[in-house]
Amino acid sequence: MNSWLLAILFIIFTSYILEIIVSLLNINALSPTLPKEFETTYNDQEYSDSQEYTRVTTSFSIIRNTVSTFLTVLFLLYGGFNYVDILARSFGYGPIITGLLFIGGLTFLSFITNLPFSIYSTFVIEERFGFNRTSLKTFILDIAKGALLAFVLGAPLLSLILWFFINSGEYGWLYCWFGVVLFSIILQFLAPVLIMPLFNKFTPLEDGSLRDQIFKYAKQERFTLQGIFTMDGSKRSSKLNAFFTGFGKFRKIVFYDTLLDKLNDSEIVAVLAHEMGHFKLNHIIQMLIASIIQTGLMFYLLSFFLSNTPLSEAFSMTETSIYSSLVFFGFLYSPINLLISLLFNSLSRRNEFEADNYAARTTVSPEMLIQALKKLSQANLSNLTPHPAMVFVHYSHPTVLSRIEQLRQFRISSDLEGNKT
Ligand SMILES: [Zn+2]
Questions:
Q1: CA 180/CA 150 separation, integer angstroms
Q2: From the CA of 241, how far away is ligand 1's center (Å)?
Q3: Considering only CA atoms, which of 401, 403, 309 is closest in space to residue 350?
């Protein structure tokens, strides 16, 4: 057996088994006793709903993962990649268009196998727990818009990458790196104006006390804010959220309409203060730099595996090509990707604590953010007691209980300081 094939099968099965272990640990960690902190927020029914939601979504992800691993291995062993390549080549185009057809074909196959799962997740699971607001029309339109974006943005980017690797010799990876970084920075500016409005409606927040409070807080923190918007998140789900878009002077804060319904003004300002903290503490720029570095590393490593015939043979390919090497490298890169995401997640969790602290320091009292976090968990049926392994691998945010605990300590330590003076 080809040693690349052995390595790839080993990678696929190891990551599959790790994922299953983490999921099972997480289901086992569900505790029937409501954490004390939430006694005044949740009633028994809500708490058991949140546990059931974790149980159902985790079991579902185990099934989804099992099916997709099984299909990937079958496809790999039975020469599926080669069939797609033969079909892509049969049109007789050059290496770039053929590469687009090959990767487009694989993307389409993966979309088709995922479709039943996303239908089930949206219309059965989310529906059962009362989250789903997506109509069939929105669901289909989302798919169409996603495909349009892949065609308009993904295809040119991929062509550029292939072009650099075909034409720029050993520095191809460097050009790809710059190209992709530039592309994603431009996208950061275009997304709020051109892409996001395709999916949601953004309305400026109407005049009133909330708007006044937000601008007052932003002014106090010397934070330029181009606008405050509400987004019709309720078009798809009843879950709550808020985020910033844009850079520098173009920053806008966006609240889901569902969040404005559930939180009071002071709690909303606390959420805003947390998000603003990410800017003030340079988390946004730090994450941007980290992701630029990781993109460079990926392209550099990729450059060693382009047109690697034994690697292509592991995938039963009759012809070796740069575009197919791109896909095969993805399999080899996945353990490195996992390590990097562990690093990113732990950095992000640290940043969340810092942003919470920032919010506590700059708003009236940490209590507002604590209340907001509780309401968010309640409305989103968040798992209050995830297993530490699950947090370590997948959580970009610390558990809500650890965040609340930290905020309470903040209050105690600032009270002590207050007593000293
Ligand atoms: Zn945050």
A1: 15
A2: 11
A3: 403
3-state secondary structure (DSSP) of residue 133: coil
Query: CA 117, 113, 338: angle at the middle one, nearest 5?
Result: 80
Beta partners for residue 56, in sequence order:
none
Return the number of other C-beta atoms located less than 10 Å from residue 45's C-beta. 8
Task: Tell me, in angstroms, the distance from the centre of ligand 1 to residue 222's CA.
Answer: 19
pLDDT 10s digits, 299-352: 999 999 998 999 999 999 999 999 999 999 999 999 999 999 999 999 999 999
Exposed e or buried b per residue across 65-92, where buried means at least 16 C-beta atoms within 10 angstroms of its C-beta:
eeeebeebeebbeeebbbebbeebbeee
Choice among 19, 126, 352, 356 that is catalytic: 356
Find out whether 326 and 161 touch, Cβ atoms under 8 Å: yes
Residue 363 DSSP one-character state: S
Distance CA 252, CA 275 (A): 11
CA of 255 to the centre of ligand 1 (A): 14
Cα-Cα-Cα-Cα dihedral sign, residues 374, 375, 379, 380: negative
CA–CA dist 253, 257 (Å, integer):
13
Query: Whole-angstrom Cα distance, residue 421 to residue 416?
Result: 9
Listing from the earlier edge strand, what are the strands of the sheet with 242-245?
202-204, 227-231, 252-256, 242-245
Please say if 275 is a catalytic residue: yes
Q: How confident is the model at residue 252 (pLDDT cuts 50, 70, 90)?
A: confident
Q: Which of 19, 85, 275, 352 is catalytic?
A: 275
**Distance from residue 215's CA to the centre of ligand 1 (Å):** 20
The number of C-alpha atoms within 13 Å of 310 and in the hemisphere containing its C-beta is 9
> 0.85 exceeded by the pTM?
yes
Alpha-carbon distance of 46 to 54, in angstroms, equals 12
Q: 110: CA distance to ligand 1 center in Å?
A: 32
